[in-house]
Design brief:
Strand order of the largest sheet: 1-2-4-3
Strand content: 5-15%
Shape: globular
């Protein structure tokens, strides 16, 4: 249900009837129940155009508003605001249609596009750590959201698998013998050991440099070792992805090496476009208004990240046919992407109608406001963090019910992983955030556990009822009306979150929805014997639609629900 769009249609009809030639910009959700369900605040802007008093314009609009259908009543407030209340029967009808639809009445886009979402991006030479967490979670949610709304989403995991360090790594892998799986169990240690050999043994260092050249020239032996290293490294990443329950697969990997053969063409095309300049032996692009150039080839002939990113942009726009390309990358890379996007557009690598966006995010901090580290100052491995989340979840739920050991394991995984993901997604992605175990595993506040508990509570209502609720939603008081209207706003929230690449808009909505439902549940009894059966059925159906909305919202965030908690 595009609720705001429906309200806008009614306002537009009033404009047409009143002879106002303008779009009804200014319809927003009301901030308080006493202001109605929606407010129209566009009269002030129209005052300049129509040369009339805003309140006079508001009166003109309300006099021509149809209150026989979607609207129940209107009220002019302040200097020219129009408060709008939706009709109970109309709202109930929309909810009844939503409850019978597996998509809850949310339509897929009429004009879907191809969208590339680039996220996670682990380094093949190191174990995945907490620095990869935000990109992975935010990117996966954005991909889930866009796919749910109907776009064709192409997930891309851009990994670093090319460059001078790989000569060192495969030379050391060769020394270890066997299949390498044992020595690569701890990638962090493997890298340190290889670097130590490189720094201390000149013969080994020469061999490593020689292997770099051989990899780049296609030597079969060195490429075989390189592929083995990448394969085992990706296996480590896939273990994390499975535990984190994100939708990244091996086929989504587009490594730096994939674009290697296109890098020379990037330079050639930039040169043809008249954008290439030499500076201290390096090939650069100088952008108007920018002091620092974009270096695309070093003086020694080596290429840089910018070169690979330009090749990737060309491929994604022209081969994959993407109309929106989203890079879910640390905010500190903002300057890099701003320049690369500009070069890509000015060079014609990407058509003007393609949206390029850097979905930036801040840093995860500890309780002291410092970057999240281990107690000894080391990097926290992501797999260890997720394992700890599951263990802490066991402690949080152990006294809630009489669970079997098997149930504890299943529930703790859903709760623990959900807590980590929700805590990240519930803040403005561009902000740094404090990682706090106690807060994220709380049954109160804006946490996944609060959402999961609300869902489980609704399921318990139906278990006690013991049968299907068959009938229609009929709204009998203000609280039921507000809950129903909020349920119908779900599609508007999802569309805005997709447009802004802002998962926290979904979590904010879910928190407000669950908080309102809890108030409804406390004030409006459902299972008491003295309740009229039609009222009971209606409230059961409202509760069921609430549960389905919670489940769908959490599913988009990549978080599971529980039937019992």
């Amino acid at each position: 249900m595009k609720l705001k769009e429906e309200v806008n249609k009614v306002i537009k009809a009033a404009f047409d009837k009143a002879g106002i030639e303008a779009e009804p910009i200014g319809v927003t959700e009301a901030t308080k129940p006493e202001f109605g369900d929606f407010q129209f605040n566009g009269a002030m802007a129209l005052a300049k155009v129509l040369k009339k008093n805003p309140r006079e314009i508001a009166t003109l609009i309300t006099d021509n508003l149809d209150t026989s259908g979607i609207l129940a009543k209107t009220q002019i407030a302040g200097p020219g605001f129009i408060n709008l209340w939706l009709n109970d029967d109309w709202v109930a009808k929309q909810c009844n249609e939503a409850k019978n639809d597996e998509r809850l009445g949310i339509e897929k886009k009429e004009d879907p596009i191809k969208v590339v979402v680039d996220y996670s991006g682990p380094n093949m030479a190191k174990q995945m750590h907490v620095g990869h967490l935000r990109s992975t979670i935010i990117g996966d949610t954005l991909a889930n959201l866009l796919a749910f709304l109907g776009d064709e989403v192409i997930r891309q995991n851009h990994i670093g698998d090319w460059g001078t360090q790989f000569g060192m790594l495969i030379a050391y892998l060769e020394e270890q013998g066997s299949d390498g799986s044992g020595s690569l169990r701890d990638l962090e240690q493997f890298y340190k050991d290889a670097k130590k050999r490189f720094d201390e043994d000149s013969t080994f260092a020469d061999k490593a440099r020689e292997y770099v050249v051989k990899i780049q020239s296609g030597d079969a032996h060195c490429l075989g070792l390189w592929k083995k290293f990448i394969d085992i490294s990706l296996g480590h990443c896939e273990e994390v992805y499975k535990k984190l329950d994100v939708n990244l697969a091996r086929e989504d990997v587009r490594a730096e090496s994939f674009y290697n053969d296109s890098l020379a063409k990037v330079l050639s095309d930039l040169d043809k476009a008249g954008m290439l300049s030499e500076s201290d032996g390096a090939q650069c692009v100088f952008l108007e208004g920018e002091e620092i150039p974009v270096i695309v080839q070093k003086s020694d002939g080596g290429y840089l990240y910018a070169t690979t990113d330009l090749a990737a942009l060309w491929y994604r726009a022209n081969v994959l046919g993407a109309k929106r390309i989203s890079y879910v990358v640390d905010a500190r890379q903002g300057g890099h992407f701003k320049q690369v996007f500009r070069v890509a557009k000015e060079a014609g690598f990407v058509p003007e109608d393609v949206k390029l966006e850097h979905v930036a995010f801040g840093t995860m901090m500890d309780k002291n406001g410092k970057p999240f580290k281990t107690r000894d100052g080391g990097t926290v491995k992501l797999i260890d963090l997720l394992d700890e989340a599951v263990e802490r979840a066991k402690e949080a739920i152990k006294n809630k019910a009489d669970y079997s050991d098997e149930e504890v394991e299943k529930i703790a995984k859903i709760v623990g992983i959900g807590a980590v993901k929700y805590a990240d997604l519930s803040i403005n992605r561009e902000s740094n955030y404090i990682f706090d175990w106690d807060k994220m595993l709380s049954f109160e506040g804006n946490t996944s556990l609060y959402m999961q508990y609300a869902y489980a509570r609704i399921q318990s209502i139906f278990r006690k009822y013991g049968q299907e609720a068959e009938g229609e939603i009929v709204l009998t008081d203000d609280l039921e009306h507000r809950l129903a209207v909020m349920l119908l706003q779900f599609e508007d929230i999802l569309k805005k979150a997709a447009e802004d690449a802002a998962p926290n808009q979904i979590t904010n909505y879910l928190y407000e929805l669950v908080t309102l439902f809890m108030r409804f549940y406390e004030r409006n009894p459902i299972l008491k014997e003295e309740i009229d059966e039609k009222v009971r059925t209606s409230r059961l159906l409202l509760a069921d639609l609430t549960a389905k909305t919670i489940k769908q919202g959490l599913s988009i965030l990549g978080i599971g629900v529980l039937e019992r908690l």
